[in-house]
Every structure is written in structure tokens, then in C-alpha cells.
Write a structure and sequence with these properties.
3 domains; 29% helix; FAD/NAD(P)-binding domain; 5-stranded parallel sheet; globular; 479 residues; Enolase-like, domain 1; alpha/beta; 7-stranded mixed sheet
């Protein structure tokens, strides 16, 4: 005997749980399956993002930033706090409390919206049937008019650095250190590596980041990336580019890392080593052999522009499909697919998805980089404005960074916005809205921005696109 649903969602991360809630709101009988079990052995919702990703890492980033600020910057403001200490177990406890609160909140939202949750592993069978295997091994089959696969991703493991219980860890393990390591190695100089490296660096760890590529943050606008590297180096992170880790050797409570770069082979010893070289789509056990769903050459589920797989009525969203592995991208795909299933017109705009690195200062971007525009032969013009000329940034004691706007040379349409500075992650939505509404740089320049705010740098950068910035000398345009 099987239960029948209009929509069955496999996975309750930021893609799956949002898709399930929206589908239920649209009047569809909806079920959502989640296999995640927390440290206490309890089944929880929220996926990677809420349990071991976006949320817990931000809790640690905020705590470590406040500690670092109190220790190094308070004196600038006239605040005397000479004996500031960090209670790491208490910081971790607070992080866990926030996670519990939020995952419990999703369970309440499911109840409020009428979503039926199932604890266990979901597997898509032929004919849009979904098998649920409970934690006790029992099975049941759900029948669905539509299925949404939102099974997410897992960290990539590498042979030279096999994970151990507490010395060599992935990004999940790095969120549960009970004390600050004296020497910390990080394999991978991407978003996750820089954020986790920052947390423990601020708390006193000597951090070395090994990045195999020769270019720092290669996918980012390189004018911004250079400033970010300079800033993080000044903060104490040792960033080794073109450094490929070839072997690791655990000796007692430390690990020796062997890596190769242009100068040859080197060895370095750490107390902890974090492996964060990227994530891969999770499809293990999600698809039966006769389910009919195709994977691409990189292991992602193949979907069209509306997230439909090769099987009609079966959709896939989030980290398990193409596009940036970002929680907000997964959520928006979830809403889009729910709307499509309900018979509404909906389309995801993949050209206006913001990305943020939550170091301090933050780094945020949306749209095209200068390098991408050059490679595509698109005529463009730029406007750059530094935070050092913004009054609010001076008052905040954070004048590092800049706003950069790229606009089409002929139409003036905004093509990209890139920000390095305090609160960049909040300010980037100026750019998201500009791209979504096909704004020109002049549209932004003609708006009235509140003073004194950091967002004035966006206004000034928009003015600078045509050489009209007010609070700095403009570059003379080449004839």
C-alpha cells in the first residue's frame, strides 16, 4: 500500500524545505523526506546549510570577529578592555543552540503549512514512486504526481589527505574544534577555506592556506581579489598559491603536510588540517537504476532551464544540479519549481545570483566580472569608489575595500557589481536589483542614497562610471 502525494521532495535542505513549503502553500499535497541525523542522534531538517554550513559558520565568524575587534580595535574607539579572552566551548555551544533553534523552526513551518515529513532516506523509483527507508530499516513507497530531488552535496575528499577523527577534518569537523589550534593548515583557498581559516586565525591560530591554483579566487573580479588577498595576508593568513598538497602524515597529535609549488617540495607541521577543496553533488542511493534520470559527466543531475530532469514530472534543484552551489540559489529554484508544478509561469534568473564570502571585510559580487566581459568581447566601462572616502566607513574604523560597477559601454546597462568592504553582503543587493530590473548605471547615479551610509559607495561608483563621482577626483576619460 502506498501513500499518494501531488509533490514528494527528497531532501530538506534550503532547496528542499523551501520547495515543500511553497508547494503546500499553492494547495499541493506535499511530502518531504530527510535522512539527516544530528550529534544527539535526532532526525533534523535544514540540510548542510543549517546544520554544518552557512549558519554555524556565520555564528563562529561573528563570535571570532567580535573577539578580534575587542582585542585589537577597541582601543581606537577609546574602549579599554585589556584582558579579553575567548571561551571556545561556549562559542561552539552557542553555535549549536542557534542550529537547534533554526532546524526546529523548519519543523514548525512544515506543520503550519501542512507538509508531511518523513524521516529516512528517499530513493526515486521508476514511475515517479519514491521509496522511503526509515532509520530502523523499514520501507514504504510514496506515489507522486511530481518529484523534486534536492539531495544536496558533500565535501570532496582527496587521497593525499584522508580524514581522521580529529586531526585532518573537513568543513564540518572544523566547526567543532574545542580549542584553538596553535598551527592550522587549510587545503583549499576558496570561500569555505577562507572563512574557516579566518575564524581560527582571529582566535590566535597560525593559519596557512594551500591553494592549488596560481590565481587567488580565480572566478572573482581580479581587481577585487587582489585587494582581498592583501587584506587577509595583513590579517595573518599565509596564502600559498600554486601549492599542491601531495601527502600527509599524522604523528601523534600533529600532522605533517607535504606540498609542491614552483620552488619544489616542502613540508610543514600543523596541529589541525582542514580539507575544503570543494563539494560534489550527492546522488548516492537517491536514484534507482530504472528511475530514468540522467547525470552529466561531472555527476550532476541533468536538468533543463526549468529544473526538469530527463523524466517528465521529476525535477532537481540546488547543489545536485548545475550552477553555483549556494543556499539561496537552491531556495529560489525550489520556489520556481513549486510554481511551475502548480501551473504558474515562473523562471529563475541565473544572471542575478549574488555570491558572498563572509571574511572581514566581506566580499560580494553579482553579474559579470571584468575578466568575463573582456573574454566575451563585450564593450564595457567601470566605476570604482573606495570606502576610504566614505565618512561612515571612517566612523566605523573600516575603510578597507571598494565598490566596482561594470556597465555596458554603449547602453550603460549594469552588467556586474563587486564589493569588498564591511557589510558587502548586505550592500550587494543594490546590484541584484539593478541587474533584475535591467537598470543603467545612470539609474543608480540618479537615486538618492542616505547619508552617512556605506551604501553611498555604490552611489559614488555608479557616478564614477561616467566620471561624475563627487567625493573623489575622477579619472580622465581616454579619447
Amino acid at each position: 500500500m502506498s501513500d499518494k502525494f501531488d509533490v514528494v521532495v527528497i531532501g530538506a535542505g534550503p532547496g528542499g524545505y523551501v520547495a515543500a513549503i511553497r508547494a503546500a502553500q499553492l494547495g499541493l499535497k506535499t511530502a518531504c523526506i530527510e535522512k539527516w541525523v544530528n550529534k544527539e542522534g535526532k532526525s533534523v531538517l535544514g540540510g548542510t546549510c543549517l546544520n554544518v554550513g552557512c549558519i554555524p559558520s556565520k555564528a563562529l565568524l561573528e563570535a571570532s570577529h567580535k573577539f578580534h575587534e575587542a582585542k585589537h580595535d577597541f582601543d581606537t574607539f577609546g574602549i579599554q578592555a585589556p584582558n579579553v579572552t575567548m571561551d571556545v566551548p561556549k562559542m561552539i555551544e552557542r553555535k549549536d543552540k542557534i542550529v537547534t533553534q533554526l532546524t526546529g523552526g523548519i519543523a514548525m513551518l512544515f506543520k503550519a503549512n501542512g507538509v508531511t515529513p518523513f524521516e529516512g532516506t528517499g530513493k526515486l523509483l521508476a514511475g515517479k514512486k519514491v521509496e522511503v527507508t526509515g532509520h530502523d530499516g523499514s520501507t514504504q513507497v510514496l506515489e507522486a504526481e511530481n518529484v523534486i530531488i534536492a539531495s544536496g552535496s558533500v565535501p570532496v575528499e582527496i587521497p593525499p589527505a584522508p580524514l581522521t577523527e580529529d586531526i585532518i577534518v573537513d568543513s564540518t569537523g572544523a566547526l567543532d574544534f574545542t580549542a584553538t589550534p596553535a598551527r592550522l593548515g587549510v587545503i583549499g583557498g576558496g570561500v569555505i577555506g577562507l572563512e574557516l581559516g579566518s575564524v581560527w586565525s582571529r582566535l590566535g591560530a597560525e593559519v596557512t592556506v594551500f591553494e592549488a591554483m596560481d590565481t587567488f579566487l580565480a572566478a572573482m573580479d581580479q581587481q577585487i581579489a587582489k585587494e582581498v588577498k592583501k587584506s587577509l595576508t595583513k590579517q595573518g593568513l599565509q596564502i600559498e598559491l600554486g601549492a599542491r598538497v601531495t601527502a600527509t602524515q599524522v604523528n601523534g597529535q600533529e600532522v605533517e603536510v607535504t606540498y609542491a609549488d614552483a620552488k619544489g617540495e616542502h613540508k610543514k607541521v600543523f596541529d589541525k588540517l582542514i580539507v575544503c577543496v570543494g563539494r560534489k553533488p550527492y546522488t548516492k542511493g537517491v536514484l534507482s537504476e530504472d528511475a530514468g534520470v540522467s547525470l552529466d559527466e561531472r555527476g550532476f543531475i541533468f536538468v533543463d532551464d526549468q529544473c526538469q530532469t530527463s523524466v517528465p514530472g521529476v525535477y532537481a534543484i540546488g547543489d545536485v544540479v548545475r550552477g553555483p552551489m549556494l543556499a539561496h540559489k537552491a531556495s529560489e529554484e525550489g520556489v520556481t519549481v513549486a510554481e511551475i508544478i502548480a501551473g504558474h509561469k515562473a523562471q529563475m534568473n541565473y544572471d542575478a545570483i549574488p555570491g558572498v564570502i563572509y571574511t572581514f571585510p566581506e566580499v560580494a559580487s553579482v553579474g559579470k566580472t571584468e575578466e568575463e566581459l573582456k573574454a566575451a568581447g563585450v564593450p564595457y566601462k567601470t566605476g570604482v569608489f573606495p570606502f576610504s572616502a566614505i565618512g561612515r566607513a571612517m566612523a566605523n574604523n573600516c575603510t578597507e575595500g571598494m565598490v566596482k560597477i561594470l556597465a555596458h559601454e554603449e547602453t550603460d546597462r549594469v552588467l556586474g557589481m563587486h564589493i569588498f568592504g564591511q557589510n558587502a553582503g548586505e550592500m550587494i543587493h543594490n546590484g541584484v536589483i539593478a541587474l533584475e530590473f535591467a537598470s543603467s548605471a545612470e539609474d543608480l547615479a540618479l537615486m538618492c542614497f542616505a547619508h552617512p551610509t556605506l551604501s553611498e559607495a555604490v552611489h559614488e561608483a555608479a557616478l564614477a562610471v561616467d566620471g561624475h563621482a563627487i567625493h573623489m577626483a575622477n579619472r580622465k576619460k581616454r579619447k
